[in-house]
Amino acid sequence: MIVSPILFFIVCAFLLLFAAFGMARIALGPTAADRVVALDTINTLVVAVMIVLGAAYDQVVFVDVAIIYALVSFVGTLYIARYLEGGL
Amino acid sequence: MLAFSMTSVIAFAMYLVLTLFSGNVGLWSVEELIAGAVLALVAGWVSRRVLVGEHERGTPSPWRMLNPLRLLLFSAYFVGPFFVALARANVDVAYRIVTGRIRPGIVKFQSGLKTDLGRTLLANSITLTPGTLSVDVDDETGDFYVHWINVTDPEASAEAICGSFPAWARRIAE
Amino acid sequence: MRFLIYVLVGIGIAANGLGAFSLLRFPDVYTRLHGATKCTTFGSIFTTLGVIVYGFARGGPAYQTLAVHALIALVALLITNPTGSHAIARAAYRSGVKPKGAVVDRLEERR
């Protein structure tokens, strides 16, 4: 045992706290673009949390899901951006 | 045909990396190798026009990224100037978050890059490095419109905005 | 080795926190994108590096697989994050959001 899994759980707690900041911006944000920025940030944080949880639970599947989540959330962001531009 | 086989080879390499340590034929198991080969052929056929573009006259060859020198340059760029700039960017943004001292504006500079790959590389580098964020690119002329968080000079040159990045992008991708 | 993981993860948390905080601190879309993209990318690189070091330090096929997959996830993040942020910036500009308090706006002069 090199580091205790509790370290990784603490990291996850912090990252999810930061995701709550993004939630606040989604609730407050005056324009749609502000909300997309916050959503993009939350997506990145969720990917980081998934990777860290993969180490905490010793499950490789979590990291695989993180890879797919990163790529799919990117496509989602592109589509929302396209919609804001008026190209959809 | 060449594009199809190249895409398949890359897809197969990706599959091999993802299934490392699964068995004892080398590092892989027989089942994974067979499944990977079949899936790589399917993926290569479906996306054969995506990864390798058509070769038009007067443009650089679509195969140029196979040149090992370019890949080596790219790795050197990534761990050297790029990573240093990324670290500096974070210190810079931290400073601006704490003090709130910003002077934003959108400036323009000429990159002189012609290929999509070079522009993509430069735009991503600009976004991740200190104080700048690429907003728009002119498709014909290759002009970059960059949001700069601390405008010191509205007529600034490319050198002042993003240092040596255009030169690196040209060397790597054109 | 344990100390290295602590340092990597600590830097990651600090940078991520900064990025998330900049969402609340800065006045408009573009400056928020600055903070959010740079800091969360940098922070995620470091938390993931912590996991990679952990995986290789534990050894054995299962943990090495964990490390290699984390590396691939890192590459995916590194490619997609700045591209997505560029798309958002462009979309914000074209949907009519002006940079607040801008001293110069060359894109406006073009149109």
Would you mind describing this structure in some detail?
The complex is a heterotrimer of chains A (88), B (174) and C (111). By secondary structure, chain A is mostly helical. Chain A has three helices and no strands. In chain A, α2 runs antiparallel to α3 (60-85). In chain B, strands 1-3-2 form a three-stranded antiparallel sheet. Chain B is 56% helix and 10% strand. In chain B, α1 (2-18) packs antiparallel against α2 (30-46), α4 packs antiparallel against α7 (165-173) and α5 packs antiparallel against α7 (165-173). Chain B has helices at residues 2-18, 30-46, 48-51, 68-99, 116-128, 158-162, 165-173; strands spanning 105-110, 132-137, 143-148. Chain B has two domains: 2-51, no CATH class; 85-173, Alpha-Beta Plaits (2-Layer Sandwich), CATH 3.30.70. With 174 residues, chain B is mostly helical. Chain C has one domain. Chain C is built from four helices and no strands. Classes of the chains: A mainly alpha (88), B mainly alpha (174), C mainly alpha (111).
Question: CATH class of the largest domain in chain B, anyone?
Answer: Alpha Beta
Task: Indicate the percent of residues in helices of chain B.
Answer: 55-70%
Helix percentage of chain A:
over 70%
Uncertain runs of chain B: none
The overall number of domains of chain B is: 2
Proportion in β-strands of chain A: under 5%
Annotation, overall tally of beta strands of chain A:
0
State the end-to-end CA separation of chain B.
Answer: 24 Å
Q: pLDDT average of chain A, as an integer?
A: 90
The largest sheet of chain B, given as strand count, sense and whether it forms a barrel, is: 3 strands, antiparallel
For this structure, the CATH topology of the largest domain in chain B is Alpha-Beta Plaits
What would the principal axes of the Cα set say about the shape of chain B? globular
β-strand number of chain B: 3
CATH architecture of the largest domain in chain B: 2-Layer Sandwich
Q: How many domains is the backbone of chain A divided into? A: 1
Question: Radius of gyration of chain B, Cα only, in angstroms?
Answer: 21 Å
Terminal Cα span of chain A? 52 Å
If interface size is counted as residues with C-beta under 8 Å from the partner's C-beta, which chains form the largest one?
A-C, 49 and 54 residues
